[in-house]
Every structure is written in C-alpha cells, then in structure tokens.
Amino acid sequence: MTKSGKKKILKHPPHWKDDFSVDWDATDYVSRREFTRFLGLSSVGMAVGTTLIAGVGSAVKPVREAEPLRLGRVEDFPPGTSKAFEFPEKGQYSLLVRHEDGSFSAYGQKCPHLGCAVYYEPHDRVLECPCHEGFFDAKTGDVISGPPQRGLNVVELEVRDGELWAVGGGGH
Ligand code: FES
C-alpha cells in the first residue's frame, strides 16, 4: 500500500517468484476442512490398528500354567517350620510355611521390593527380607513394614490324600 492508500502495483514481479514459482492454477488446494478430516481419519485408523494389534497380541500369548508339584506328606512339616521349593518353574523359588495352628501358607520367595529372597522368622511369625528389612505377614503375605509396596505372591496349595501340593500362583 502507498501512503495515499492505493495498492502499489509492481511492474515486475519480485525475483523470488522466479526462484519459487508456483503455478496456482495447476495446484490442488487442500482446504482446512479437508486437512482436518484427513487428520481425524488418520487418528481413527491408528487407534483401530493399535487396538487390533493389542487384541491379537493378548489372544496369542500363551497362558503358562505351572505343573502341580508334590511337596510331601502333611506330617513331614512340623508346625513352626518352613521349606523352600522350586515353583512355579525351575530356578524360581517359593517358601512354604507351616503355622503353629497346623495350617499352611506358601509364597514366591522373591521380595517384591528389589528381589532378595525372604525367609521365615518363626519367633515373630513373619516373613523377613534381610536386604532392607521388609516384613510380611506369614499368614497372608501382606506387607507389615519396610520398603516393599506390595505383598508376596501367594502360592495356591492343596491337600490331596494327606499330601501337600503346590498347584498355582507364586512366581515373581
Ligand atoms: S529387597 Fe526386600 S526389602 Fe528391599
């Protein structure tokens, strides 16, 4: 615009138009609405794709069930004692506790804090992690005190014809 308010018409187009020339008549314009629609459809497509991948991934994931493990005859475990055993897999340890009232509990032996092995402390009737003084209720596996944020993994037990079996749970 000039000072008088009239539009200044250039006799020659600026040089940059030669370098970055655009043939506007031959160009396909994309309106804001079309671009927004494209973004919306792309987002929906990605969401559907992600959901399908997640669904297929969880559908084909094999569910590993532990082989039941015979631990011994019930009378082999005096009240107030504990015993470590490999369950649910080789190299993973669980801890069986026979309480003073004759009932049993078992837990994955790995502390949920940083993975140290817990042991049974019969005097206080708790499971203790020696690494950072984590304490767990021997009857429930719940945290009593210390840094662990969750309890121990419970091993499911069954008594079959006077024999004690680990049948599920445990692990890390
Ligand atoms: S590893 Fe058990 S309390 Fe830290």
Question: Which key terms come to mind for this protein?
Answer:
single chain; 172 residues; Rieske Iron-sulfur Protein; four-stranded antiparallel beta sheet; three-stranded antiparallel beta sheet; 2 helices; 10 strands; transmembrane; Rieske_Fe-S_prot; disulfide bond; Rieske_2Fe-2S_sf
Descriptive account of the structure:
This protein is α+β, with helices and mostly antiparallel strands and 172 residues long. It folds into two domains: 36 residues; 101 residues, Rieske Iron-sulfur Protein, CATH 2.102.10. Helix content is 19%, strand content 28%. The chain has two helices and ten strands; from the N terminus they run ααββββββββββ. A four-stranded antiparallel β-sheet has the order 5-6-7-8, with no helix packed on it. It has a three-stranded antiparallel β-sheet with strand order 1-10-9, with no helix packed on it. Strand 7 and strand 8 form a beta hairpin. The radius of gyration is 35 Å and the shape is elongated. Bound molecules: FE2/S2 (inorganic) cluster (FES). FE2/S2 (inorganic) cluster binds next to loops.
Which whole number gives the mean pLDDT? 86
Describe the oligomeric state of these chains in a short phrase: single chain
How far apart are the first and last residues' alpha carbons, in Å? 75 Å
The total of beta strands comes to 10
- Largest sheet, strands/sense/barrel: 4 strands, antiparallel
Using only CA atoms, what is the Rg? 35 Å
Instruction: Name the CATH architecture of the largest domain.
Output: 3-layer Sandwich
Mind telling me the CATH superfamily name of the largest domain? Answer: Rieske [2Fe-2S] iron-sulphur domain
- Shape from CA axes? elongated
- Unreliable segments (pLDDT under 50, ≥5 consecutive)? none
Sheet/helix structural class? alpha+beta
